[in-house]
Structure formats: C-alpha cells, structure tokens
Amino acid sequence: MISxxxxxxxxxxxxxxxxxxxxxxxxxPHQVLGEPMLAWRNFMPPGMxxxxxxFASDLYAPFAGYRLExxxxxxxxxYAPIGMRLPLERFVEYGLWFxxxxxxxxxxxxxxxxxxxxxxxxxxxxxxxxxLARRAxxxxxxxxxxxxxxxxxxxxxxHVLHSGEIGNLMWARGKRIVIVGGGQSAxxxxxxxxxxxxxxxxxxxxxxxxxxxxxxxxxxxISRMIRxxxxxxxxxxxxxxxxxxxxxxxxxxxxxKRIAETSFGPSGxxxxxxxxxxxxxxQMQTTVRQGAVHNGEVVxxxxxxxGQSTVTGDHVVVATGFRVDLARHPFLSPEIVAGLxxxxxxxxxxxxxxxxxxxxxxxxxxxxxxxxxVLRFVYGxxxxxxxxxxxxxxxxxxxxxxxxxxxxxxxxxxAEGGPGGLQxxxxxxxxxxxxxx
Length: 437
Ligand SMILES: Cc1cc2nc3c(=O)[nH]c(=O)nc-3n(C[C@H](O)[C@H](O)[C@H](O)COP(=O)(O)OP(=O)(O)OC[C@H]3O[C@@H](n4cnc5c(N)ncnc54)[C@H](O)[C@@H]3O)c2cc1C
What we know:
Layout: E1 2-10, H1 14-25, E2 30-33, H2 38-42, H3 68-74, H4 88-102, E3 106-107, E4 111-117, E5 120-125, E6 130-138, E7 160-162, E8 176-180, H5 184-195, E9 199-203, H6 221-226, H7 236-243, H8 245-249, H9 253-262, H10 273-276, E10 281-283, E11 287-294, E12 297-304, E13 307-313, E14 315-318, H11 334-339, E15 360-362, H12 368-371, H13 381-398, H14 427-431
Parallel strand pairs: 1-2, 1-6, 2-3, 6-15, 7-14, 8-9, 8-14, 9-10
Antiparallel strand pairs: 4-5, 5-6, 11-12, 12-13
Helix pairs in contact: 1-4, 1-13
Bound molecules: flavin-adenine dinucleotide.
C-alpha cells in the first residue's frame, strides 16, 4: 500500500515527537514512523534514573502545558526542576502521555529503506507499506551507533552485550558481570546489577572516575549569575552550549568535531556515587587487550598498572559509548549516504538541520557536530524542534501550502488520510492553541 505525506519523521523519541507537535501546530501534514519512546522502553534498564535534571528532560510543544512539570502536576507526582531523581519509567510515561495528547499520526513501524524518488523520498516500511514524502526528518537517537572497542568486537551475544541494548536486567541475577567503561552507563549499570544480586566488576581505562557534584538547589541570585544553570550543566560554558546551539555552529568544523566528540565525556551522576563506591569492584587504569569466549565464559586479557592479568565472567557489558556514523544506518540508500557528504560519519547540516541531501533533515545526537553536545541530550530538542518545523512549514507554504505531495502514479485515495495517512489531531491538541511559551 502506498500513501503520501508532506514530511516523514523517522523516529518517535523525544525529538521526533517534539518535531511532530510543532509541525501539527503549523498545519504541516506529516507522519511519525516508529514505536513511541521505544529506545527508552526496550533498550534502557528498568530502575535507571535519568542523568539529566528534570527541567532538562522535557519534550517540547509550541505551547505551554506539556512539560514534565505539567505532567507531574496533573498526575499528582512530585517534581523539582533540579536535584530530583527522575526514574526512567516516569520519563517514558510522560513521553507516551505527550504523544497521546499531541501526536496522533504515529505509525509504529520500522523504516527499512529511505531513498530519493522524484523531488521527494520513498520510505519503505516494515509493515509492507510505502510512504512517499516530500521531506524526511531523521530523528533516530543513538540506535545503530553503539561503539565496541576492537578487542571485543565479534564476540557472540549474549556473552558480550553493548550497554545500549540491555533493557531488562533480571537475567543477570547471580551471574558474574564484567562491565567495560567508566561513564554514566557503566556506573549506572554497575549499581543496578549489584543491587539485584549479580557479581559485578568494572574495568575503567582512566585513572579516576569523574563524579558530578551534588546539585545545588535554591541558589542565590549571585551564584546563578556566576554559574548559570544550563541544560547540560552549571556554568557559562555549558550554558552557552545548552541555550545557544547556533553559536556552536558558527565555529570551524574541526573545532566543532572535537568538542562534539570529547566534551561532557564520561562521568557519573551525583546520585550514583554512594551506590558504587565501596559496593562494586572497580579496577582503574585497566585496558582490555583481547577477549574470547571459552566454555561458556568470557575471558579477557587486561593490562593495568600492576601488569597483565586475566578477568573472567559470564557476561561482558561493553559500556564504551556511541560513535555517530550515519553510513551505519542500513536503511539509508547508498545514494543518500553519498549525498550526505559525511565527515567521519557526521553529517554537516544547515542552520535549519537540513543535510546536504535537499529535503532531508537530520537531528538529535547525529547533528551534534553541527550544533554541539546538547544535541546528544533530550534538551537539544528544545532548539531543534521549532527550528526544523519553521523551515519545513516555510517550504511547505512555498510549494502550495495545504496541497498534499502527489508524486506521479499515486492514486489520490491513498494520499493523506488514506490507509496509514494523517489522522485528525486529538481534541486535546486542538484545544491547546494558546500562545507559544
Ligand atoms: C543509557 C542511556 C541513558 C540516557 N540518559 C539520558 C538522560 O538522562 N537525559 C538525556 O537527555 N539523554 C539521555 N540519553 C541520551 C538520549 O538517549 C538521546 O539524547 C535521546 O534519545 C535522543 O532522543 P531521540 O528522539 O533523538 O532518540 P530516541 O529517543 O532514541 O528515539 C529514536 C527512535 O527511533 C526509532 N528508530 C530507530 N531506527 C528506526 C527505524 N529504522 N525506523 C523507525 N524508527 C526507528 C528508535 O526505536 C527510537 O524509538 C541516554 C542515552 C542512553 C543510551
């Protein structure tokens, strides 16, 4: 079945849903492709606490009433913008609530192929359907960018797993788990595994673990002026990166790439320290040279300050982060990948997030080389969603406004509102037309 729309949003996480809310407000027909909040529901461990502060864990609508704070108030749940331990489950429920209120036109499918067709895109879907769209927005988060060091590549699952694909942890009870990495994912998993009764050992390459400072609530005006609160962290540098991603974009490409890849590196959240220090076996300055699976256990050759040794476990969890490389998304056609002119995997995008492929927008972590580290976090959607929606709606208006995209050979009956097409926005959305915040 072929249907059409103006804009296909690929990915239904915080970015995709926020962009959809803004496009609906601007009257741009579109479809969101993907299971809402799937990465948070399936690939993150239940019991995890959000690393971002609550005020930096919103999805973004073009009007007031849909922030995490609003949701918490409606549900009579406690809320504090700073210093709150925000459980993953609450964030997921909030994201699904946001979607139910503002984003009705979601198709819970996987995109299997995206390629150019005429002056738009042909999107093949896992339900067998095809969507023709004038424009496409890639908002896929970190999925597909898991980084595994060469020494651990090629080892069989489930003996070796990446932290980005873990989900439920119950299977680990009583097992020996070796975690490689020293950042939030490694330390957060170490605490959770330990608390459910696994035998945990963490191998950290660096000589120290950086722990984030306890949050300072109710700061004085002077303190807030000296160290303003940014979505990424406190201080002028994080503040500018958080609130003005366009400033980052004005820097030279080499500098941007370096900052995007290295700043806000591995660290542990303030609420993790007491759950890890003295409770979990953490070995510093340890590098995994080689790994293998023998007789059902993982055997790692490691080198450390005290020389070479062997570490064994039932499972190894690789928590060594993510490396953006859009060429790794198998659904992007070779023609599109070539058109993106990638810089070691990163796409360069315009100030409106449009890539070198006209009509193809890239946002979220994949756009961090252009707009900075804030795009690696949910907070970046605050800037990206209105920006992309404004540009898409301008283009849409230039092309004739409400006229749906009608490429040659597509029966009108299947365009918008046909099977899988745009549905009416929910009542809550229509009522919500109050001035933008
Ligand atoms: C363990 C962990 C903890 C994190 N904690 C925080 C935190 O506390 N705060 C914070 O700000 N950031 C956090 N992040 C970073 C955060 O995940 C990203 O910044 C954020 O997900 C980006 O949102 P998104 O909408 O771009 O992507 P996602 O939320 O990942 O959504 C993308 C969606 O696209 C879907 N998708 C992928 N491929 C396809 C396809 N082919 N077809 C259709 N759909 C597809 C995915 O299933 C997913 O649902 C964390 C990341 C990890 C790994």
